[in-house]
Known about the structure:
Number of helices: 6
Distance between the termini: 45 Å
Order of helices and strands: HHHHHH
Shape: globular
Radius of gyration: 16 Å
Number of strands: 0
Structural class: mainly alpha
Amino acid sequence: xxxxxxxxxxxxxxxxGQLLLDLGKLTPAHTxxxxxxxxxxxxxFGLYEPLVRFAGAGASVPIxxxxxxxxxxxxxxxxxxxxxxxxxxxxxVTSAGISAAIIFSFLAALFVRPKG
Length: 116
């Protein structure tokens, strides 16, 4: 049953993204930004963590979870470190993903001829 809920929730997030692309006539960058902001807002209201507990990878894999991680890290660190925790919490939680994106993009550019 857990796999079914993960599939349905993850699929629903993807459908929302596809509708933003098709019906909203948004660019892929605008769509991605909207989904990240949606995840951040949902976490700000305390709604994304229950969704992750319910759907597992269906909510933690899509791009909305990046917004969730940004806000979640900032809120967690602001409670322990004060206002400086806003910046440090964001980077503490998301640094591995950002670093991986930079490293793998660089490696891909070494093996594939970039068009830019």
